[in-house]
Amino acid sequence: VQVVESGGGLVQPGGTLTLACACSGFPFGGAIIRWFRQPPGKDREFVADIRGKAGLPWYADFVKGRFTIFRDIARSTVYLQMQNLTSEDTAVYYCDGNGNWGPGTQVTVSS
């Protein structure tokens, strides 16, 4: 089983960034894939997930309208498109693929 995040980096306030979570080693189509984040000095928190064969999304309240989770089944990859970023979105973003965690990718929002 392998879960690997990518796409993090430095972005200006108001900018857009898309993260990717590449999964392998488990049945991707029916799995629940979750994004979490851990801001500096804070606990890890849920961001969004996509679940089941229908690929239904679910979002934390603080990202509704700004973040979009979607998947590419052929690539076994889930994406998190983040728009209108603020400094409060600075965090390490982690992917939980059916109970398997990736190493995380750093997102820094700063001018």
Word description of this protein:
The structure is a single chain. The chain is mainly beta and 111 residues long. Helices cover 0% and strands 54% of the residues. The protein is built from no helices and 11 strands. Strand 9 and strand 10 form a beta hairpin. It is globular. The model has no long low-confidence stretch (mean pLDDT 96).
What topology does this entry show?
Layout lengths: L1 E5 L2 E3 L5 E8 L7 E7 L6 E7 L4 E4 L7 E6 L4 E6 L8 E7 L2 E2 L3 E5 L2
Parallel strand pairs: 2-11
Antiparallel strand pairs: 1-3, 3-8, 4-5, 4-9, 5-6, 7-8, 9-10, 9-11
Order of helices and strands: EEEEEEEEEEE
Radius of gyration, Cα only, in angstroms? 13 Å
Unreliable stretches: none
- Termini separation comes to 37 Å
Which structural class matches the secondary elements?
Answer: mainly beta
The number of helical elements comes to: 0
β-strand number: 11
Classify the beta-strand content into a percent band: over 45%
- Main pleated-sheet profile: 7 strands, mixed
| Approximate shape | globular
**Roughly how much helix do the residues carry, as a percent range?**
under 10%
- Work out the oligomeric state of the chains in this entry: single chain
The pLDDT mean sits at 96
